[in-house]
Amino acid sequence: MDSPPVHGLPGHLVDFVGALRTHHVPVGPGETVDAAAVLSTLNLLNRAQLREGLAAAVLRRSGQRAVFDTLFDLYFPIALGRGQGEVEVPWTPDGDVDIDALRDILADLLRDGDDEALRELARAAVDALGQAGGPGQGGSGPGQGDQGPRNWSAYQVLRQLSPETLLARILSDLMADNSADDAFAEEVARREIRQRIAEFRRMVTEEVRRRTAETRGREQVAKTAVPKQAEQVEFLSAYADQLAMLRRTVHPLARRLASRLAVRRKHAKRGQMDLRRTLRRSMSTGGVPMRPAYRTRRPGRPELVVLCDVSGSVAGFSHFTLLLVQALREQFSKVRVFAFVERSDEVTHLFEPGSDLAGVMTRVLREAELVTFDGHSDYGGALASLVEHWPDAVGPRSSLLILGDARTNYRDPNLAVLRRLIGQARHSHWLNPEPRNQWGSGDSAALRYADLLPMHECRTVAQLADVVESLLPV
Fold first, then answer.
1. Both ends of the chain: CA-CA distance in Å?
2. Bridge partners (DSSP) listed for residue 306
3. Under CATH, which architecture does the 250-268+300-471 domain have?
4. In which order are the strands placed within the sheet that holds 427-432?
5. What is the pLDDT of residue 299?
6. What are the residues whose beta carbons fall under 8 Å from the beta carbon of 465, sequence distance 6 or more?
7. Of the residues 152, 391, 394, 425, which has the fewest C-beta atoms closer than 10 A?
8. Distance (Å, rounded) from C-alpha 357 to C-alpha 211?
9. How far apart are CA 148 and CA 26, in angstroms?
10. Cβ neighbours, 10 Å, residue 171
11. Cα–Cα distance between 365 and 314 in angstroms, integer?
12. Domain ranges within the chain, ordered by starting residue
């Protein structure tokens, strides 16, 4: 039997916690109880205090704050409907928004840096101009009530206000009081104005999100508005800022994996039971084996050979994985890295300790000999060149790790050479950033390669961390 719905503030908190869980923020019963205590203690009208109190109660890991802030704004909005404020939108006698007068108000507020007034102006401007289609198509003139659900648009508001075009005007006003020709002060003022303009754009976007949530529902808006955590971003669809964010997670992730591996190594040192020593110990306890003795294992650290596709969108996945391997290189006795597009080339020297890893992928593409014909991935050619030029790279102590989407551009996948490499290696694994349901589609030879060695889906950092942890030597 389903439990009855919870209404009021407790029910609202339950919905908020459920939304956090939906977006991969683990909030348990203990954190929920703490959040309820925050709601009962703090002033609900003080949003800044309430935001920080709930964040302290429910967040347990870094990287979750952006998700929390977006959902907080949806579930604890700054206002309802049009809200109230002292800033008003000027109107013409014909009942249209006076855009020029509104831009004058915006310029004054940007010059003064009044954040609260800018937030009120954003709210008023969205209500007057934010309907998709523009003024005169269902907009709310002075004294008009709400006319039903609307399609709110931040683009519509910002296009008409064009806050970026006010930069020169505001800068001129600010520098008018400065009689000295101070280029440094002018540059500082210019950057400050740009920052205020960017903040105003963010305010408009948040206001549109709030009004859309009122008409379409918070859950619907949250599907597209809530940013993904770094661990949930897919490598193949990540844009530049997200890839930069992923690179910043390499070392914290490596530390977590290394600490887990240390625990595994500690337990792995205990091998099979030593029957002779166990019986000898039992003599002091009347023949009862109270203190079993075990043989001590001395596992050696294997060598790692990485073969990675660095072409196209796969380069982001390969770059992140190589940085993770670099951070974990102490877990291996030796690491060799080979990059390829159409042919393979060794780039181990670019990942040596002390190397500048910020632009390592750029150096790989610039310095390594990877292309022979048209610059499209050729897995068969890469495998062949690896065996031809580095026949001893993969040996009986080697763990072979291949990174790539296995899309061969309809060229020979060279299964015979891969089978030979697998036979030479101690372990072999393939990390594929494509969804499993796309393996084998089009020019993908993933399923054919997967018949020869284990292939793991690694679309996100979370999946990659799980796979790498399971493959690390013990």
1. 47
2. 337, 401
3. 3-Layer(aba) Sandwich (3.40)
4. 344-346, 334-340, 303-309, 398-403, 427-432, 455-457
5. 56
6. 231, 253, 256, 257
7. 391
8. 44
9. 37
10. 17
11. 13
12. 8-75, 99-216, 250-268+300-471, 272-298
172-193 burial string, b = 16+ CB within 10 Å, else e? eebbeeeeeeeeeeeeebbeeb
Q: Over the stretch 119-131, which tens digit does the pLDDT of each residue have? A: 999 999 998 888 7
Q: Are 320 and 250 within 8 A, CB to CB? A: yes
Low-confidence ranges of the chain (pLDDT < 50): 1-6, 134-140, 142-148
Buried/exposed 281-302: b ≥16 CB within 10 Å, e otherwise: bbeeeeeeeeeebeeeeeeeeb
Query: How many Å separate Cα 392 from the centre of its chain?
Result: 38
If one counts every other C-beta atom within 10 angstroms of the C-beta of residue 250, the result is 21
Contact between 5 and 11 under an 8 Å Cβ cutoff? The reply is: yes
197 neighbors 158 (Cβ within 8 angstroms): no
Residue of 402, 399, 426 lying closest to 414 (CA atoms)? 402
Q: State the pTM of this model.
A: 0.68
Q: From CA 156, how far away is CA 341, in angstroms rounded?
A: 44
DSSP secondary structure string, 322-390? HHHHHHTGGGSSEEEEEEESSSEEE-GGGGSTT---TTHHHHHHHHS---SSSS---HHHHHHHHHHH-
Residue type at 312 in one-letter notation:
G
Tokens of 70: 């977006």
**Overall residue count recorded for the chain in this entry:** 474
